[in-house]
Amino acid sequence: MPEPSAVPIRPAATVLLLRDEPTFEVLMVRRHHQIDFASGALVFPGGKTHEGDHDPAWEARCTAWDAAPADERPFRIAAIREAYEEAGVLLAVDAAGAAFTGDERAHDARDVVATDQRSFIDVVIELDLKLDLGALTTFARWITPPLTPKRFDTWFYLARAGSEQKAICDGWETVDAEWIAPGRALELAAKGERKVIFPTRMNLQLLAEASSAEDAIARAAARTLVTVEPKIERRDGGQVLVLPPDAGYGVVEESLSSVGI
Prior knowledge:
Nucleoside Triphosphate Pyrophosphohydrolase, seven-stranded mixed sheet
């Protein structure tokens, strides 16, 4: 394992797509077993930011541009792009300002965007859409601890998913898409029927405190964002992973061995 100081921190973004029918659920995707990070795990759609997420041309192709903090815009664009690539859900509006409901052109362009054969912004321009930055509400921000072989600075967002767009996994990075109640995902993980990594589990627990998409978004908007960078501390029983007590997750001290880092 490389020295902690030698491991770069990669910017990333993920989105928790929510719906209330038939019940309060979040969209999760299963990572391909050959992926080198969180292989086989149930996660929220997301990934590293790309250079194209910083393209200044996005200003003309996004709604709520001025309302989003300048340093956060690339993360929001990345979150929307990843949801499109991995789950086929594109959070955008058409020329009339109506929510995009999906079409064959958008579906057919997913693979070429995901494999970097074509830029995301070119596809959005061709579809005459604007990304809906205002659809995203900041939920959390996590930085993976120094002892891990890969480190990410990940922004988590909440967004309502329209009923018209169907979630379909890409078959490359993700092999299954599943709408699931947050509490149910935690139950299955506890039984060993789903693989859920530590940050995902913590955010599922936080999400499970809400009763609906509206409630979850309202809670997130009211919460002061505290960046979570888990710390390793020694206790009598061994090393534990500790979260900041004011980050919204309560008091969290978990055995390092049980967390799986």
